[in-house]
Amino acid sequence: ADGSGAALLSAGGTECPVGLFHPAWSADGTKLAVVCYPGDDREAVAILDLATGSLTRLATFEAPDHLDNAPTWSPDGRTIAFDILHWDTTGEFIDGSVVATVPSAGGEIHRLTSQDTFMSHPDWGPDGAELVMNSYDLGNIPSTAKPSNLYAIKPDGSGLRQLTHSSVDGSMRIGQPHWDPDGTRIAVSILTATGPDFTFADVKLAFVDAAGGEPVLITQADGKYPDLRPTP
């Protein structure tokens, strides 16, 4: 954590020869969930075992489905959540996205949301009872007139509830949520945009109450992808 001791964990091997992206720690620190690029326009969710260096692909997708955001582990380490981005037939824009899960030991993919809801960036609550996610991802969908708010859902796909209502169109985007380790609030990125094409402007950080409510900006903090360090 202090920048010393850098070491190559994996170069992809035969499973992910094109590369590995978006590493996410398991709770016990023994594994990483990654987005894996096997080649031939395929992407996969994979597990890297840090003790052995072995890579195991859990779910592999082909165009028009793509993976471009970090997977996240359930607190008990049994399940990986991720989003699947669906591109249109021209490959020029995303026409839907789905939040899904897969067992970390391998098994059936469970799609929690429908493609037309444009949900992405799932993150587990510390008790594993819910995932938080956002609609109309502010990273992969840079221009939209649709609102981008936070939602929570149970791991079985039930109990969908909307947490924020501040975004009413593409001029404000709320996304990239990360749950606070104590479960009381969610850190988010807030994008404000300008003009008829909703051109990117400022990106700031904020907190949203886990029970629901509107974002409260963190003063003196610009940026995106907030992630709070656990308290030992």
Distance from N terminus to C terminus (CA atoms, Å) equals 14 Å
Alpha carbon gyration radius: 17 Å
Derived structural class: mainly beta
Shape: globular
Low-confidence stretches: none
- Estimate the helix proportion, in percent: under 10%
List SSEs in N-to-C order.
EEEEEEEEEEEEEEEEE
Query: What is the beta-strand fraction?
Result: over 45%
Q: Describe the largest sheet.
A: 5 strands, antiparallel
Q: Figure out the total of helices.
A: 0
Overall mean pLDDT: 91
Task: Provide structural commentary.
- A hairpin with a 6-residue loop joins strand 8 and strand 9.
- The strands form 4 sheets. Strands 5, 6, 7, 8 and 9 form a 5-stranded antiparallel beta sheet that branches. This protein has a 4-stranded antiparallel beta sheet with strand order 1-2-3-4, with no helix packed on it.
- It is globular and about 50 Å long.
- It has strands at residues 19-25, 31-39, 42-49, 55-62, 65-66, 72-73, 79-87, 94-103, 110-111, 119-124, 131-135, 150-153, 161-162, 172-179, 185-194, 199-209, 216-222.
- The chain is mostly beta strands.
What does the secondary structure layout of this molecule look like, with pairings?
Elements: E1 19-25, E2 31-39, E3 42-49, E4 55-62, E5 65-66, E6 72-73, E7 79-87, E8 94-103, E9 110-111, E10 119-124, E11 131-135, E12 150-153, E13 161-162, E14 172-179, E15 185-194, E16 199-209, E17 216-222
Antiparallel strand pairs: 1-2, 2-3, 3-4, 5-7, 6-7, 7-8, 8-9, 10-11, 11-12, 12-13, 14-15, 15-16, 16-17
